[in-house]
């Protein structure tokens, strides 16, 4: 039976460290970390995410600001708000909740955020720092950063000699995940929907990361015995057994099958999900430390 990697407990541990780092910053008379969350429009899922981020920021002792803009907001108005937040010394992290309405180009908006306040890790400068191994000052996207912490809890920080396969090549998860594994001395293969004989490739992995957004695509016989399996997927599928119109959450891995072969595995929900907001808090407190000329905390 595989070890179940409990993302909730690891996330709680990260949040406790963030609180301690925040208190330490105040004790040094360096103020408090500031996080500004911007949401445009009324997307219900986005509203839930933003409320959770703002709540956790307050719990950590941050200066927490939320800007809720109407769906008809122009790109120019949003860019003006970002420029103001870039200039605000009380703000260390700026997060623009995606997706944005169709009249706004998300790429333009993300690149307008000052790299040192880009706690989502999407700015080209942070992408470049991660790609070249400059991890001391880079902000890493929160989901892969959290996934990496979960892997470290099982395998340790040095992954020398281990083979990793990342299924998925998105800029938000797949590519940064591959770079983090490379930085930890893994031998990394990035696979995707056009990879030839994906099951055979997956079976070579000591660490298998699934981030494709396809429900239960990774089957149990894709998993090398003893492998560490990290399931980044969050998919809703029909659950008629719960009643008409009901759904349930599943990952990109067929959990019941994969659990039999894996040495350790993240569940969905309760695995990678809780880590994402925890790592957002970690990035924000790190930004505050760097802004104060201090060494960033390690999580």
Q: Top keywords for this entry?
A:
single chain, 299 residues, alpha/beta, 16% strand, six-stranded parallel sheet
Number of β-strand runs? 11
Contiguous uncertain segments of 5+ residues = none
| Straight-line distance between termini | 28 Å
Figure out the total of helices: 10
Strand order of the largest sheet: 1-11-8-7-5-6
Radius of gyration: 19 Å
The largest pleated sheet is described as: 6 strands, parallel
Q: What does this molecule look like?
A:
This protein is of the alpha/beta class and 299 residues long. The protein has a six-stranded parallel β-sheet, sandwiched between helices. Strands 3-2-4 form a three-stranded parallel β-sheet, sandwiched between helices. It has ten helices and eleven strands. The model has no long low-confidence stretch (mean pLDDT 96). Strand 2 (34-40), helix 2 and strand 3 form a beta-alpha-beta unit. The protein is globular. The longest helix has 21 residues, at 7-27. Helix 1 (7-27) packs parallel to helix 10 (273-291). 40% of the residues lie in helices and 16% in strands.
Any chance you could write out the topology, listing elements then pairs?
Layout: E1 3-4, H1 7-27, E2 34-40, H2 44-59, E3 63-69, H3 75-87, E4 93-96, H4 106-112, H5 124-131, H6 142-155, E5 163-167, H7 174-183, E6 187-191, H8 198-202, E7 207-210, E8 228-231, E9 235-238, E10 247-250, H9 255-261, E11 264-265, H10 273-291
Parallel strand pairs: 1-11, 2-3, 2-4, 5-6, 5-7, 7-8, 8-11
Antiparallel strand pairs: 9-10
Quick summary:
The chain has 299 residues and is of the alpha/beta class.
């Amino acid at each position: 039976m595989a070890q179940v990697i409990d993302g909730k407990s690891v996330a709680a541990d990260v949040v406790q460290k963030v609180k301690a780092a925040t208190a330490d910053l105040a004790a040094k008379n360096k103020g408090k970390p500031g996080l500004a969350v911007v949401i445009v429009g009324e997307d219900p899922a986005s509203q839930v995410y933003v409320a959770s981020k703002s709540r956790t920021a307050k719990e950590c002792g941050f200066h927490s600001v939320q800007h809720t803009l109407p769906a008809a907001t122009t790109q120019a108005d949003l860019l003006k708000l970002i420029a103001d937040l870039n200039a605000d010394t009380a703000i260390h992290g700026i997060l623009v909740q995606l997706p944005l309405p169709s009249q706004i180009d998300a790429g333009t908006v993300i690149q307008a955020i000052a790299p040192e306040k880009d706690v989502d890790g999407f700015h080209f400068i942070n992408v470049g720092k991660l790609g070249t191994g400059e991890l001391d000052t880079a902000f890493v996207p929160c989901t892969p950063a959290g996934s990496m912490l979960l892997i470290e809890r099982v395998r340790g920080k040095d992954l020398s000699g281990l083979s990793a396969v990342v299924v998925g090549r998105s800029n938000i998860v797949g590519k940064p995940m591959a770079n983090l594994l490379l930085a930890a001395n893994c031998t990394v293969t990035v696979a995707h929907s056009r990879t030839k004989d994906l099951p055979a490739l997956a079976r070579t992995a000591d660490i298998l990361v699934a981030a494709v957004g396809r429900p239960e695509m990774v089957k149990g016989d894709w998993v090398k015995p003893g492998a560490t399996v990290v399931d980044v997927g969050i998919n809703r599928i029909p659950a008629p057994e719960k009643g008409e119109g009901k759904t349930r959450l599943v990952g990109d891995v067929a959990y019941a099958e994969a659990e039999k072969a894996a040495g350790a595995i993240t569940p969905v929900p309760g695995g990678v999900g809780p880590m994402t907001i925890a790592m957002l808090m970690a990035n924000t407190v790190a930004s505050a430390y760097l802004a104060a000329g201090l060494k960033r905390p390690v999580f």
